[in-house]
Amino acid sequence: MSKKKTRLDFIKMKKEKEKVTWVTAYDFPTASFAEQAGIDMILVGDSMGMVILGYQDTIPVTMEDCISHCQAVRRGAPNTFCIGDMPFLSYQISNSEAVRNAGRFLKKAGMDAVKLEGGRRVSDQIRAIADAGILVMGHIGLTPQSSGQLGGFKAQGRDAASARELIKDALAIQEAGGYALLLEAVPPELTNFITKKLTIPIYSIGAGAPCDGQLLICGDMLGFFQAFTPKFVKKYANVAEIETNAFKEYIKDVKSGAFPTDDYVYHIRKGKEEEFYEMLKEFE
Ligand code: KIV
Fold first, then answer.
1. Residue 91 Cα to ligand 1 middle (Å)
2. Ligand 1 binding pocket, CB closer than 6 Å
3. Would you tell me the crossing angle of helices 63-76 and 28-37 to the nearest 10 degrees?
4. Which residues contact residue 198 at a Cβ distance below 8 angstroms, ignoring those fewer than 6 apart?
5. Whose CA is nearest to atom 6 of ligand 1?
């Protein structure tokens, strides 16, 4: 079992150009499989709203949802650096609410860091959380909590004007004390520039290779989130197909009587059969 990585390990990996591997997980089994596979970091994303809770977007996800799923992930991956994702309206309203809610991820769920969405407009909250001694990661580009303002789940920063705004946001996050930054669905040319310009680790989900590590959503890469698949997703498994086929086979077996056979039952103990059938007579 490898030792849990820290912020310093991630800085060293950036210096040594070793890529960080990162996935989302929301439950005990997925977290433990990711840890057993040797993943560097886990994000308990508010994408849980869409991936496992069946919502249309991430807006309905609550702090209680996040804490409960972070606790399950921590139990499944005790030796992995885990980041709790701050849900919609858990940090936007005031700095004090942002700090209190960020703290709950650490105190109640044993997370190592938190992540929130937005650039300059949340830099005060980032500063307040960092000043409270909490590792806070920024997230810009396609920010799902503001997908309404962005006009949907669309790539960002694809022209000079919007790329300039994202560079300003990235600089503001570093300046406010963000310890790392996630870029989502932006061009690799922009990712490359931001990675070279900033000193903090820069991670990508759909933002190309030239950065310090990659994130994928477990439901996308394992093939159990079926609503849509973004262009940037590489599918490593088709769990939806595996599960559906298994359920189909089970249904067929039960209906036909092929399951359960003698291999799957607990008979009355040997030598106790006579006593058992005698006892049944009491109820006749
Ligand atoms: O919630 C999440 O999984 C995320 C990713 C979309 C980056 O924030």
1. 16
2. 24, 43, 45-47, 85, 139, 144, 182, 184, 205, 215, 217
3. 40
4. 170, 171, 174, 181
5. 47
The pLDDT tens digits of the residues spanning 54-111 come to: 999 999 999 999 999 999 999 999 999 999 999 999 999 999 999 999 999 999 999 9
Give SS3 for 4: coil
> 258: CA distance to ligand 1 center in Å?
43
Distance CA(54)–CA(274), nearest Å, equals: 53
CA distance 176 to 121: 11
Copy the structure tokens of residue 208: 């190309």
Q: Is 16 a catalytic residue?
A: no
- Please give the single-letter amino acid code of residue 17: K
And the tokens for 188?
Answer: 């690799």
Rounded average pLDDT over 225-240:
96
